[in-house]
Every structure is written in C-alpha cells, then in structure tokens.
C-alpha cells in the first residue's frame, strides 16, 4: 500500500515585510527597509506604507524575463508573490528620483547585469549602486 504525502508549495513559502519610510534607521530619507530582500521562489513580499505618500511598483525592465510587474496604490499595502528566480527592482513611484528604490533577489541574481544596465534617475542611481554592491556581496 502506497501512502502519498502532498505538501503545498505555498505552505513552505515565507512572507517578507518591507516598510516604506520617509526616514530609515540609518538616517537616509525616502527608503524601503530593508532595501534588499533575499527570497525563494514562491515567497511573498508585503510592502507596508509605514509613512504616508508611498507605494511599491516594479521598475520597468527591472524584473526577470517571465516575471509579472506590479503597481501598488499610494498609501496602500500590497503583497506580491515572486515565482521566477532573479532580481526584482522596485520603486516608490512619487519618490523614484529621490532614490526610493529597492530589490528582491529570488534565488540566484541571474538578471543582475540587465537591471544594472537600466537608467536610474537622480539619487536613485547612487542608491542602485549600493543595492548592486550588497547583492554582489551576497548579503
């Protein structure tokens, strides 16, 4: 007699919380905290508008090839499920030029060169460099 054991993939998934803040714990303004999240395929990321006037949206061209884009509303929590391996760049649309960006690395950062090649406006360029350094360091 064979006994089957079925485990739901979603039951193994983790939920990661990212706060949208006017000022981070390091004193920097217009930040997501944490700025870089390491996740596994099937994990969810919940973006919480801890401070007002923020949203979370994927950066155009900043996702793995088959990944689904998202665009949350300002002042509203949004949860996204990430199933494709790679780097997912995200932004606060009203504060993108002020450097309010972050990244989720799902599994291996296979599309890192592609997201590094994107154009980041204003202060987002310097913050993107910090994000890429953190990803390359593996932390």
Kindly describe this structure.
By secondary structure, this protein is of the alpha/beta class. It has one domain: Sandwich (Immunoglobulin-like). Helix content is 17%, strand content 29%. It contains three helices and eight strands, in the order H-E-E-E-E-E-E-E-E-H-H. Strands 2-1-4-6 form a four-stranded mixed β-sheet, with no helix packed on it. The longest helix is centred in the last third of the chain and has 14 residues. 32% of the residues are buried.
What is the highest CATH level, the class? Mainly Beta
Dominant shape:
globular
How many strand units? Answer: 8
Euclidean distance between termini CA atoms: 47 Å
Give the class from helix and strand content and strand pairing.
alpha/beta
The share of residues in extended strands comes to 25-35%
CATH topology: Immunoglobulin-like
What average pLDDT do the residues reach?
92
Q: What are its keywords?
A:
139 residues, alpha/beta, Immunoglobulin-like, four-stranded mixed β-sheet
């Amino acid at each position: 007699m064979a006994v089957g054991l079925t485990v739901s993939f979603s039951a193994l998934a983790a939920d990661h919380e990212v706060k949208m803040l006017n000022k981070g714990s390091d004193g920097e303004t217009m930040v997501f905290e944490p700025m870089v999240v390491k996740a596994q395929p099937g994990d969810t990321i919940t973006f919480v508008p801890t401070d007002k006037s923020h949203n979370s949206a994927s950066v155009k061209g900043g996702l793995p090839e088959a990944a689904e884009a998202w665009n949350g509303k300002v002042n509203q929590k949004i949860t996204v499920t990430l199933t494709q391996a790679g780097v997912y760049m995200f932004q606060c649309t009203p504060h993108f030029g002020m450097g309010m960006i972050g990244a989720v690395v799902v599994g291996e950062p296979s599309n890192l060169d592609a997201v590094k090649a994107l154009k980041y406006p204003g202060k987002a360029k310097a913050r993107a460099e910090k994000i890429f350094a953190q990803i390359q360091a593996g932390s």
